[in-house]
Amino acid sequence: MTLTKAMIIDNIQNELKYSKKESTDVIEALLEIMKKSMENGEDVLISGFGKFCVKDKKKRRGRNPATGDDMMLDPRRVVTFKCSGKLRDKVNKKQP
């Protein structure tokens, strides 16, 4: 099952005893801060969780999968995620 934004909001509401509106506002504000930082080319590091990195991709040659024709792909930015060691250990159940 996928954890959705609505489920995160519900968890915050239940665990921290916030109202639904307060929980929604907290999550929306957090996501907006992260989006603006990455939009400006800044990485986002969350200790114990991981790092969202903005990387520049250069113009490169690609192929249209429908026709098989060669084409040039425009330069662009991509976001990558590298999880922290703590998160990796939890996912792999290597808890002390």
From TrEMBL:
Whether Repeat counts among this entry's keywords is no
- Pfam families, sorted: Bac_DNA_binding
Q: Which SUPFAM superfamilies match?
A: IHF-like DNA-binding proteins (SSF47729)
- Name the GO terms of the biological process aspect: DNA recombination; positive regulation of metabolic process; regulation of DNA-templated transcription; regulation of translation
GO-annotated cellular components: cytosol
- Keywords from the UniProt entry: DNA recombination, DNA-binding, Transcription, Transcription regulation, Translation regulation
Q: A GO molecular function for this record?
A: structural constituent of chromatin
- Family per record: Belongs to the bacterial histone-like protein family.
What is this protein's name?
Integration host factor subunit alpha
| Organism in which the protein naturally occurs | Desulfonema limicola
